[in-house]
Amino acid sequence: MKAAVDAVYYDTDDLRLVGASAALRRRTGGADAGWHLKLPMSGDSREDVQAALSDTVPDTLRDLALSRSRGGELRPVVRTWSTRSTQHLVDSQGTVLAELSLDRVRAESLLGATARASWTELEVELAEGADPLLLDLVDKALRRNGIDRAGNPSKLSRALEETGTAAPRLPDTRAETVVPGSAAEEVLRHVDGQVHALVDLDPAVRRGLPDSVHRMRVTCRRLRSTLRSYRAVLEREVTDPIREELKWLGGELGAERDQEVLMERLGGRIRATPRELVLGPVGARLQVWNVSRTSEARQRTLDALRSPRYLALLNSLATLTQQPPLSRKAARKPDKVMVKAILKGYDRLAGRVAHALELSPGTERDAALHRARKAAKRTRYATEPARASLGKPAKRLGKRVKAVQKVLGDHQDSVVARDALRHLALAAHAAGEPGFTWGLLYGQEQAVAEGRERELPTVWADASKPGLRKALVH
After folding, report:
1. Is the confidence at residue 43, as pLDDT, over 70?
2. Which of 204, 223, 224 lies closest to 214, judged by CA?
3. CA-CA distance, 466 to 468, in Å (whole number)?
4. Of residues 223 and 466, more confidently modeled
5. Which DSSP string do the residues of 218-274 spell out, in sequence order?
6. Does 270 have pLDDT greater than 60?
7. What is the reported pTM?
8. 286 near 267, Cβ under 8 Å?
9. Maximum Cα–Cα distance for the chain, whole Å?
10. 48, 101, 263, 376: least CB-packed within 10 angstroms?
């Protein structure tokens, strides 16, 4: 069986999609004609997002590629023509075990001077339910017959290489400026991971995939914390503006995420309440309230991701990772620089916890506990880049501080839930509905907060043992 496929690949002039392991193509011929956006997933797998055939790049795919294109114009960069012959590998009963596709490929560069190339490649795809070990047997058989694995991961990468298609890129100064084994190397490795995570999560957030908003918001926080904690490594004149923009983005994402958390919490409380104690249209009122707030929060998220401000942030992060603004302490050993940064955050946390525990229960103490929670997050995040060099002491401290953060986080969630319950109760009262259930739920949340306040001294005592600090220093 033969099929001819014509594919035009789109990218920016400096090949930002290729650089981020993504690919956008317009394909005609074959069974899956249309637009295809390939996005990397875990391991070597990739997700294929498709759109109907059209003359221009579909807006949906343009948006999903935006965190990688960073707003650059998407234009044709290379074209391939493939003629595919397909054969099936079957067992003695005729059951298909695998499909072998032989492609004869021609490629032409569409950037600058025209250059052409051609080659042949073989692809083996297992049938559903087939034993994965079969691939090893096929691989060995092919090697015995002089057919080796391709050195390129895709047709696009080979087409670019074979046609000599290249593009100017942002100069990468890291190889010349970052000292191996230095604090800068450790910090930048962590920053790279978080920047990649943010870029990878962008399409998932746009599509409303589960937990994507939460993960992207946490990524913003991790990046902010790293840039704050390690200002001795990266010049704050550059990183402080980036931190402010990450704070803005996290805030825009926060509206949607906070509503998710709040709805899950309140909905769970109502479901757990005995029927005889649910008086009035409690569930219906909660749903109506949630629909309104969720719609507004969702639009806020999408508006942020479509804004010039967000594009500017993405470009700033790309520059940060490729041309890091190293300070004079960046070349120092990680143990010296990182321990100091972690302990600075830890001491700030200790002061905030002590201050909060001195206050009487009430709004002032709630606010102080919330500030302590933020300090706990920053301290925990500061330990993450240091775990490779500081080992178990950094990991152990991060784990203990996370326990403190969890207690304080549940307390703050209760503060937010009580405020929402009060407004829901007022709305129910204005509509002539019973307020009993709302008051009951409010009381439950009040009890949760009081329990967390009683629990905090014990958890903090575990996180503030002298041995943790001593192990980190030594």
Report:
1. no
2. 204
3. 5
4. 223
5. HHHHHHHHHHHHTTTTB-HHHHHHHHHHHHHHHHHHHHHHHHHHHHHHHHHHHHHS-
6. yes
7. 0.86
8. yes
9. 83
10. 48
> How far, in Å, CA of 18 to CA of 65, rounded?
11
Q: What are phi and psi of 173, to 5 degrees?
A: -95, 0
Q: Flag whether pLDDT at 127 surpasses 90.
A: no
Six token digits for residue 359: 């206050």
Helix (H, G, I), strand (E, B) or coil at 8: strand
Q: What gap in Å lies between CA 452 and CA 413, rounded to an integer?
A: 11
Max avg pLDDT among 158-162, 418-422, 461-465: 418-422
Task: Find the helix or strand (DSSP H, E) in which 11 lies.
Answer: strand 2-11
How far apart are alpha carbons 411 and 460 in whole angstroms?
14
Residue type, 244: E
Task: Write out the two tokens for 471.
Answer: 């192990």
Residue given tokens 């034993």 in the structure block: 131
The closest alpha carbon to 269, from 80, 448, 460, belongs to 448
Q: Which pLDDT does position 153 carry in this prediction?
A: 63
Which burial class, exposed, middle or buried, applies to 246 when counting CB atoms under 10 A from its CB (0-12, 13-18, 19+)?
Answer: buried
Sorted by sequence, the CB contacts under 8 Å of residue 365 that are 6+ apart come out as 356, 359, 453
- DSSP classification of residue 90: E
Residues in the chain, how many? Answer: 474
Distance of CA 407 to the CA centre of its chain: 25
DSSP 97-128: EEEEEEEEEEEEE-SSS--EEEEEEEEEEEPT
CA distances from residue 381 to 227, 254, 402 in whole angstroms, order as listed: 10, 19, 9
Q: How confident is the model at residue 130 (pLDDT cuts 50, 70, 90)?
A: confident
What stretch of H or E contains 79? Answer: strand 75-90
Q: Residues of the chain with pLDDT > 70: what percent?
A: 95
Q: Cβ atoms within 10 A of the Cβ of 387, count?
A: 17
Average pLDDT for residues 439-445, to the nearest whole number? 97
**Euclidean distance between CA atoms 35 and 268, whole angstroms:** 42
Q: Which long-range contacts (CB under 8 A, 24 or more apart) does 146-150 make?
A: 147/122, 150/121
Residue 474 has pLDDT above 80, yes or no: no
